[in-house]
Amino acid sequence: MLRLPEFNYVKPKSLQEAARLLAELGSDAMAVAGGTDLYPKMKRGQFTPRNLISLRSLPEIKGIRPDDKEGMWIGAGETLTTVARHAQIQELFPALAQAAGLVSSPQLRNAGTIGGNVFVDTRCNYYDQSFFWRNAAGFCLKKDGQICLVAPKSKICLAVFSSDTAPVLCSLDAEAVLVGPSGSRRVPFDQLYRNDGINFLAKKNDELLQGIWIPRKVFGSRNVYLKLRRRGSFDFPVLGVAAAMGFKDDLCTWAKVVLTAVASAPVAVNVASLLHNQKVTQDRVEAAAEAAAKVSHPVDNADMDYWYRKRMTKVYVKRALAQLAGLEIKSAQT
Length: 334
Prior knowledge:
Elements: E1 8-10, H1 15-25, E2 29-32, H2 38-43, E3 51-54, E4 64-68, E5 71-75, H3 80-85, H4 87-92, H5 94-101, H6 106-111, H7 114-118, H8 131-137, H9 165-171, E6 175-180, E7 183-188, E8 208-215, E9 222-228, E10 239-248, E11 251-260, E12 267-269, H10 272-275, E13 278-279, H11 282-295, H12 306-325
Parallel strand pairs: 1-3, 2-3
Antiparallel strand pairs: 4-5, 5-8, 6-7, 6-8, 9-10, 10-11, 11-12, 11-13
Helix pairs in contact: 11-12
């Protein structure tokens, strides 16, 4: 049985204090709210903090306010279950409710937070193993090793980013409110990630996510999230497709498609020239799906064959866009 190592559990009184403690303790500390990703990785020796800074009871990271003048506010400490079941999120942003409701299993959604999901650690079959397995097989670049075992010639780690909610927030032009020792700042979600399996977050180590703004300009949009995984529950995505579109009369005024689980960061598909200010037709949906397949580059370090996952990118993007446009798909395979 794998057991948690010893650690100090610190309960700050404010988010600002939590950020200050992270800055002071440096690599010896990590923040924790739900802990559904952190605790298992501590058991496997992937994370080794001696101090855990608890965010669980901080009121600053709670609350869902759908009627703010700026848009919808979602506190980073709200559980995935709360987000999935919130009536106004379901009404305005069904893609986010769908994504939150598809994370892992009901028990873990009751504990895990949306803040934890958007910052969930990258995954790889060579990395997500016990210390004993990794010691026997050879440590990888992401933890204790010198090379990426899935691609030994790669200069960066190719571990896969597998958040369900992050691509949806990217597609909705959402912003992250980050709090650090020197204050707060807002960063668009599509600028928050890097395509590097180790350094995949474009934020400072002592910054914490307070909450999420979904701007009022995307209220009334059509949005959807589709997820491919081996089992209908518990599994991470091997492909996720978030799509959002705005319409005026019969014309698409804007559209965004964002993929997850095909790289070390969410991947945006350039569909502007194909869909913006156009009537969405079967041919345009087909062209957008082809464009998505071209930028989808999964590697052989997650569940299912990577060529299959690449082919499914086209299938799932086509399904998502057709659903938003009210089009029928010609066959189940396309």
